[in-house]
Design brief:
This protein has 739 residues and is α+β, with helices and mostly antiparallel strands. The protein has eleven helices and 40 strands. The chain has a 17-stranded mixed beta sheet that branches.
């Protein structure tokens, strides 16, 4: 066993990881002996042990419950094992391990929680060019950095990474202590030096390196893909598309403008010709926003760098543009930063405080109030409280609030659940201090609340009217949070609260808040309506920033008259969660496919459908549901089947649907608790699959699902459109996403 320990020391000296002792054992023929796994500490909820094979067929896995410390697996005798890992359905990682420590054919896992990454792998980036490996002739080192969905390098833990190409490609299995020797693992297994098609490894400090057979450092002909568990995190073809779109990317200038002479708004592309997505950051958002809006400075020219992030399926590159924004010819009335910095009175929890305030004018001519919050005053105001409210009384359509990160970090250290609510005329934004815990202390967080200009708001109203809805607020509102040159668009799955004040009464069953995408389309967002006297307010819970408004609709379907699900379906239709099969019919008793329900689940949680193809072999990028299924897979709602398929067009069963819902509850952080004994009331409870029993019990306890009768659960029965709508409505009410 000494050879295994020595190998890890050797890898550390080389500063990269080659493998997980992956690929070091393979059946020599015949049916191999079972492998036993000894696990310390025991598996937690949803955690399973997997065997990875070189050909990318679905891994063998253990169907066991929490608390398991010992289990046995029989590998496929016709395949080559290249690794073992643990996964909770979202995050996949490699614990510390030893072979044959307790018995032949045994693997001992340890430090499960210590080696688990903080979040699932989302994408990988090749680090420089491949390098010739001087020790193993004919092989090159290919190193990747692995990132989570928040864009953070997964420096802690040991994220499992599986590299896959085609059957002709060869990966080297490096173990200098026992090259060409039999591993003392047990009968039926032999170490091999190389393996074709695929190889498994894990990250060290966020990096992972594979040795791939190639006589040159140009591996462009190798169709390399990376996976972590079931997450698709890198594709060489996507990397080529990113490189091409980066080279072609240009900013659009107004007539007479150049990079050295910017006086008007810029056009910043959001998609590339090769299907990439493009997002932007600005070194000075107050001069050039991330949408290209330009606010010319009043005192002198400003040098600003806007940087494009070109992204596609696990690959991205940045392209900076250095620009000079010319000083304004003359300050408009009330425009530009004030020559003085007057002190005005702002209220924190109702108490007056002196705060620095400046006045500006936005690129589209709207008045801006900028408030700079004093760090000490904010810290003192919080004390031991979970919530403080910063009230700003003015009529300006745009309010910017600068908050020193140092103050928020200090507050978070003593009270990680603290929330700073910024309240302006007709709107508010609640900033959880936890979402900024990884920012540098010298940064400044800026929360901007913008009522859209008359023209932009008219466009939003027109969209609502076109779909038969009425806008319930005076103006749609754009909420943004920035720090330094970064705009925060993703809150690590946390649903951040903001409010809008309504200008009219509303029927809560027919009303909803919506977010408006860059194409002007409206989407449901979780929202609760409340009334206090004559005033009505909607509280929005969203995991991303955007433009928001509130609407009321009156959608009905002719084929729902007298149907048991009429109220539920019409409620969700008016909230833009479900659609009819035609403008006037819903087909409530028709069955619903797995792809259709996945799309509804993504919509019901207010998630943005991210572009990109999921890793399922039967889902193409051109499929109408590809983005929704990919988003659901990334969020952990779906995992597909053992053969690598999703079966999108298959009808979904009630037990499949309830498992997806339970995973959605876990994603939001409001998982229901229950014992599977609650299922005993159903005469057919034994027909509920083992993988669905826990989810079914939890959903039953939360009143999200009911039996088809008092004594029948009907787990294998295909769900109908009406049943899916009813379950989604109960789920959303349980999450407090609707009234």
């Amino acid at each position: 066993m000494k050879s295994f320990t020595n190998r890890f020391g050797w890898l550390a000296v080389l500063a990269f990881v080659f493998m997980l002792l992956s690929g070091c054992v393979a059946p020599t023929g015949g049916y191999p002996n079972p492998m036993s796994f000894n696990i310390s500490p025991s598996l937690s909820v949803n955690e399973q042990v997997y065997i990875r094979y070189s050909d990318r067929t679905p891994p063998s896995f253990s169907s066991v419950g929490p608390g398991t410390e010992n289990l046995s697996l029989i590998p496929d005798a016709n395949k080559t094992m290249v690794g073992f890992y643990v996964s909770d359905g979202n995050t996949s990682w490699v614990p510390k391990y030893n072979y044959g420590l307790l018995a032949p054919n045994s693997v001992s896992f340890s430090n499960l929680s210590e080696t688990k990454p903080l979040e699932p792998a989302s994408y990988a980036v090749m680090q420089g060019k491949p390098a010739i490996n001087t020790e193993h002739k004919g092989f090159v080192n290919v190193t990747f950095a692995v990132y989570g969905s928040t864009g953070n390098l997964l420096e802690t833990g040991r994220t499992e990474v599986f590299a896959h190409s085609n059957s002709d490609e060869m990966f080297f299995n490096t173990d200098p202590s026992d090259v060409n020797q039999s591993i003392p693992f047990g009968p039926g297994y032999t170490r091999i030096d190389t393996v074709t098609e695929g190889f498994s490894s894990y990250t060290e400090h966020g990096l992972v390196t594979f040795l791939i057979k190639s006589d040159t450092t140009d591996i462009s002909s190798i169709p390399l893909q990376l996976f972590s568990g079931s997450n698709f995190i890198y594709d060489y073809a996507s990397a080529q598309a990113v490189a091409a779109d980066k080279d072609d990317l240009e900013i659009g200038y107004a007539p007479g403008n150049t990079a050295n002479n910017v006086t008007n708004n810029l056009t910043l592309p959001t998609t590339g010709l090769s299907g990439t997505s493009i997002t932007w950051t600005s070194s000075n958002p107050s001069v050039i926003s991330t949408t290209g809006a330009v606010n010319r400075p009043s005192s002198s020219d400003a040098n600003v760098t806007v940087t494009a992030r070109v992204y596609k399926t696990g690959s991205f590159e940045n392209k900076p543009f250095n620009l000079t924004v010319k000083q304004a010819d003359s300050a408009p009335t009330g425009g530009g930063p004030s020559s003085s910095t007057p002190t005005t009175t702002i209220k924190i929890d109702g108490a007056d405080v002196d705060t620095k305030v400046t006045r500006e004018t936005s690129a589209d001519g709207q008045s801006v109030t900028k408030v700079s919050v004093d760090a000490d005053k904010l810290t003192n105001a919080f004390g031991q409280k979970d919530l403080i409210t910063l009230g700003i009384s003015n009529s300006d359509p745009i309010v910017k609030v600068d908050i020193p990160t140092k103050a928020l970090l200090n507050i978070a250290s003593s009270n990680p659940n603290a929330v700073a609510q910024i309240k302006v005329d007709g709107a508010s934004y609640s900033l959880p201090v936890s979402v900024i815990k990884n920012l540098p202390k010298d940064a400044t967080v800026t929360v901007t609340i913008t009522k859209l200009s008359s023209k932009s708001n008219d466009d939003v109203k027109a969209t609502a009217q076109k779909q038969g809805s009425t806008q319930l607020v005076t103006s749609a509102v754009d909420f943004t949070v920035t720090y330094g040159v970064q705009e925060v668009t993703d809150f690590k799955g946390e649903y951040v609260a903001r409010t809008l004040s309504l200008t009219t009464s509303a029927d809560f069953n027919k009303s909803t808040a919506v977010w408006v995408d860059e194409n002007g389309k409206m989407h449901f967002i979780p929202s609760i309506f409340t009334t206090n006297g004559d005033s009505t307010e909607v509280t929005i819970h969203s995991p991303h920033n955007s433009v928001y408004t509130a609407i009321q609709s009156n959608k009905t379907f002719t084929d729902l008259q007298g149907h048991w699900a009429k109220a539920d379906v019409e409620l969700l239709a008016n909230k833009l969660v479900v659609d009819g099969v035609t403008a006037s019919t819903f087909a409530p008793d028709s069955q619903i496919t797995r792809a259709e329900f996945s799309s509804l689940l993504v919509r019901a949680l207010g998630l943005v459908e991210e572009k990109g193809t999921p890793s399922f072999t039967d889902v193409k990028a051109t499929d109408w549901f590809a983005n929704a299924v990919g988003t659901a897979q990334k969020a952990g709602f779906i995992t597909g089947f053992e053969d690598g398929t999703f079966k999108p067009n298959a009808n979904i069963t009630r037990e499949q649907m309830v498992v997806m819902i339970q995973r959605a509850l876990k994603f939001v952080g409001k998982d229901a608790q229950a014992n599977t004994n609650v299922l005993n009331k159903f005469n057919d409870q034994t027909t509920i699959a083992g993988w669905a029993r826990d989810a079914a019990a939890r959903a039953l306890a939360a009143n999200i699902i009911q039996g088809t009768s008092d004594t029948t659960f009907a787990a294998k029965e295909n769900a109908t459109r009406a049943q899916s709508a009813s379950m989604l409505k109960r789920m959303m009410q349980y999450l407090q996403f609707i009234n």
